[in-house]
Design goal:
Elements: E1 5-10, E2 40-42, E3 50-56, H1 59-67, E4 72-79, H2 84-92, E5 95-98, E6 101-104, E7 109-112, E8 134-141, H3 148-155, E9 160-168, E10 171-172, E11 181-184
Parallel strand pairs: 3-9
Antiparallel strand pairs: 1-3, 1-11, 2-3, 4-8, 4-9, 5-6, 7-8, 9-10
Length: about 190
Amino acid sequence: MSHRHFILFKPYGYLSQFKYELKRPKKLLGELYDFPPGTMAVGRLDEDSEGLLLLTTDGKLSDHICSSGMEKEYYLQVDGRITQQAIDGLQQGVEIGFEGIRYQTLPCQARLLDAVPNFPPRAKKIRDERHGPTSWVSVTVNEGKFRQVRKMLSAVGFPVLRLVRVRIGTITLEMLDGASVKEVSNLIE
């Protein structure tokens, strides 16, 4: 059997899944494209997050990517002007809560972005400058606890207003070439 692989820009408000059993209706990935049967998301982005999502029909490949410690880079719009002290804290690792247990994140890469990234408009408006300044930061991690990157920014005093994943390993949003979904031959080299 020949497996198929996709990259896509997951919009705000969609779940990273194809089925949802609870009563409240949700937007699902199958509404974005006619994916083949057996397609699964490789990892997740929560409903409030956007950006690069990998999909495949190959479960072994999905498990390999999720367990390999592959770098994931996020661009985050945060409330306020982020400080160098906060960026230094992120780089060293911070303490967050995970399933009721305190957890020390691994050191990561973090930096202030010089310019506002050019992303598609978000379905739900983010507050505007009348409510105070915002800034954009890049954070690259090799782990992925539940809502970890959001919790990391909150731990250093800068709540996240918008989170967009831009890279997983060597795969980047730029590879979409403006499309919302693209089939690719390989997900990893």
